[in-house]
Amino acid sequence: MEMSQYLEVFIEESKENLQTCNEQLLELEKNPHDLAIVNEIFRSAHTLKGMSATMGYEDLANLTHKMENVLDAIRNEKIKVTPEILDVVFKSVDDLEAMVLSIAGGGDGKRDVSEVVAMLLAIEKGESIHLKAESEIAVAESPVENASSIYYEAFEQTVIQQSYEQGFRCFELRISLREDCLLKAARVYMVFEVLEKTGEVIKSLPTVDQLEEEQFDHSFVVTIVSKEPSEDIEKKIRKVSEIDQVTVTEITPNQLQEQDNQLHTAEDSTAQQIQSTDSAEKVKDTKSPSKPSTPQGNVSSKTIRVNIERLDILMNLFEELVIDRGRLEQISKELKNPELNETVERMTRISGDLQNIILNMRMVPVETVFNRFPRMVRQLARDLNKKIDLEIIGAETELDRTVIDEIGDPLVHLIRNALDHGVETPEVRLKNGKPEQGTVKLKAYHSGNHVFIELEDDGAGINKERVLQKAIQKGIVNEEIAHTLSDRQIYELILASGFSTAEQISDISGRGVGLDVVKATIESLGGSITIDSSEGQGSLFSIQLPLTLSIISVMLVEVESEKYAIPLSSIIETAIVKKEEIMNAHNQRVIDFRGKVVPLVLLEDVFDIPKESSDDEFYSVVIVRKGEKMAGLVVDSFIGQQEIVLKSLGNYLNDVFAISGATILGDGQVALIVDCNALIK
Predict the structure, then answer these.
(1) Residues 270, 443: Cα–Cα separation, whole Å
(2) Crossing angle for the helix pair 35-55 and 7-30, nearest 10 degrees?
(3) pLDDT score, position 511
(4) Per-residue burial over 198-236, b = 16 or more CB atoms within 10 Å of its CB, e = otherwise
(5) Which residues contact 144 (CB under 8 A, 6 or more apart)?
(6) Does residue 178 carry a pLDDT above 60?
(7) Residue 349 and residue 363: Cα distance in Å, rounded?
(8) Whole-prediction pTM
(9) At residue 377, what are phi and psi to the nearest 5 degrees?
(10) Does the CA dihedral 639-641-643-644 come out positive or negative?
(11) Residue 547's closest CA among 456, 641, 453?
């Protein structure tokens, strides 16, 4: 298989290994004497190094190798963990992440890491950490005479070792083509033709695919095992036209051992040995140059990786099936054929099960978002000179992938806000009788058809008077209304556009861009955000999100001759109200609903529907809620509950008031989906 087919897997697994490194480094900072944590980091780094080398990303492999050396010295207790050393290792992981992102974006993964490499070398040698001069770095990085110039994965090292035991020798050939060479791929092919008759190729840099596509300058490296003398091999290669230079270096197992002095776990060694044997057999059986292969997984693995685009296509197809299912149910009711009814009912049950499976396939743990926050909190706490502990609860809670992709940035903003405005400095906390270390809790959990994400801190809380003054000053509320607001309503004023109580602009928050961006993003996902706070004790931001955005349960209603869908997640209950029970307050029609005054909203007025004369004595009302606020939506009749496919109105109709989308009903009609949040607001 071509190496390009492995690229997506390589990127995903590299991100996972780097995330493990980040998480475990944070744990190591808390428990610097726990060598089990060091071993965990080492294993992730070692896996990343092997994959990088196999894929031909030598810069990535080399930096990971330098980081491994430091980790190995720590686990062998030659070096003690210090904050300065951890800072350098964190910096290494940052650079590795940047290189992986470069590769994911179609780049080559190259990056200037000379400074961090110099510091890693200094740590390994027991020297004080400082940035070395370029000349010193050059000396430290220069290859030892006769040493290998490329990195060999464990299974390749084993092949070389076995070859020596059978009387072969291993040579690394650095070959340069002439600058004016026009057909580089053809010359490379001729070189490989010569080498096939001389020995067995076990590695090339760049890879065989890259060489064939001429994705190299003028030089390449080939490693072969052969029984012929190096001089004879060199002479044969020089006979190929347009070869400028050939350098042959013998590579021995001892030299490779010095290059990679890392220890492997018994499990890793066994797996690599099996792969080495398989690779050696493939080398003997093929006439073409061997291509580096990716490490094989456990043959009993029951999971596969699926591109999210394929799941989107599957979801779109199923949505069409749901629409057709609704149409069949409609036809079945009209025809009243027992056999058709039975078949449709069975299809409905099966498609319902299929729907659950497809929706679950799209579900992703919020851990994929939460994982980035411990490292971010560590750095921000240091920048703010605060001591803050981040607790994560319920990271295994699952959300639709579409929601996951959108929720990350709002959470980043909320956490930055909590750290900057919420948690106090150690001095202030001690003065107020609190522990000097503040706590920020990030919690996720399921409740019904929703997921709740809560961010709680034990900081200073929200100053109500200050918020009110700022809101009045900004013109968000007037003084008359300000004194009638509840505590929660006051707290939620900080979600208004342009609201900020920061006295000084900082890099953390308080740049005039309030939390309105957070609110807008969450509401665009069909969610809501509420705020509770206790001055001097802390604040709680609670986000409510739908499990999925594509297929939702609704109540179908009729207004005049038009049909509308109201999401069940917003509905408290339905009611029949006598017209004589309707009252007026502040020029607004209201009803008494279970002891609460609830304003009425006539959908025919909101959507400007042509009215027909009606002498009905009753109103059909759907009571909806957003947070603590309620409203009664007046309709003509209730049709019933149904699962519908949510379709966007597109860019041309994205500003239609109080409509969040549309759906196609079983009879082929289009029903608009009511945005209850907009109506209540």
Answers:
(1) 40
(2) 160
(3) 32
(4) bbbbbbbbbbbebbeeeebebebbbbbbbeeeeeebeeb
(5) none
(6) yes
(7) 21
(8) 0.55
(9) -65, -40
(10) positive
(11) 453
Which candidate, 593, 571, 548, 583, places its Cα nearest to that of 638?
A: 571
Give the burial class of 104: count Cβ atoms within 10 A of its Cβ; 0-12 exposed, 13-18 middle, 19 or more buried. Answer: middle
**In the block, which residue shows the tokens 């091999």?**
233
110-119 pLDDT per residue, tens: 888 888 888 8
Round to whole Å and give the CA distance between 97 and 330. Answer: 54
Chain length of the chain: 681
Residues in contact with 597: Cβ distance below 8 Å, sequence separation at least 6, in sequence order: 585, 590, 591
> Rounded to an integer, what distance in angstroms lies between the CA atom of residue 447 and that of residue 547?
10
> Where would I find the H helices in 224-294?
230-238, 253-259, 266-285
Strand partners for 670 = 664
Mean pLDDT value of segment 539-559: 85
Least confident segment among 84-93, 95-104, 276-285, 524-533:
276-285
Distance of CA 409 to the CA centre of its chain: 11
Contact 38, 28 (CB under 8 A): yes
State both tokens at 550: 């594509």
Contact status, residue 594 vs residue 649, Cβ threshold 8 Å: no
24 touches 77 (CB < 8 A): no
Contacts of 96 (CB under 8 A, 6+ apart): 18, 48, 60, 63, 64, 67
Q: Is the pLDDT of residue 296 over 60?
A: no
Question: 3-class SS at 100?
Answer: helix
For 319-332, letters b (16+ CB in 10 Å) and e give: bebbbebbeebeeb
- Name the residue among 270, 306, 276 with its Cα closest to residue 293: 276
Q: How far apart are the first and last CA of the chain?
A: 57
23 burial class (0-12, 13-18, 19+ CB within 10 angstroms)?
A: middle
Pairing of strands 618-626, 637-645: unpaired
Q: Which three-class secondary structure state does DSSP give residue 366? A: coil
Question: What is the rounded average pLDDT of the residues 46-63?
Answer: 87
Q: Which of 134-148, 399-413, 480-494, 605-619 has the lowest mean pLDDT?
A: 134-148
- Dig out the tokens for 160 from the structure: 């070389």
Instruction: Decide if 499 contacts 516 (C-beta within 8 A).
Output: yes
What tokens does 429 get? Answer: 């906390």
Which DSSP state fits 66?
H
Instruction: Share the mean pLDDT of the chain.
Output: 80
Contacts of 403 (CB under 8 A, 6+ apart): 451, 525, 545, 546, 548, 549
**Contact residues for 676 (Cβ-Cβ < 8 A; gap 6+):** 566, 567, 570, 624, 625, 626, 631, 633
Please give the positions annotated as active site.
46, 68, 417
Q: Which of 260, 231, 194 is nearest to 61 (CA)?
A: 260
Q: Give the span between the Cα atoms of 644 and 568, in whole angstroms.
A: 11
3-state secondary structure labels for all residues of 536-600:
CCEEEEEEEEECCCCEEEEEEEEECCEEEEEEHHHEEEEEEEEHHHCEEECCEEEEEECCEEEEE
Beta-bridge partner residues of 567: 554
Distance CA 554, CA 405 (A): 25
Strand pairing report for 437-447 and 387-393: parallel
Please name which of 518, 520, 515 lies closest in space to residue 502, comparing C-alpha atoms. 515
> In 3D, which of 537, 553, 517, 523 has the Cα closest to residue 627?
523
C-alpha pair distances (Å), 449 with each of 366, 472, 554: 16, 38, 13
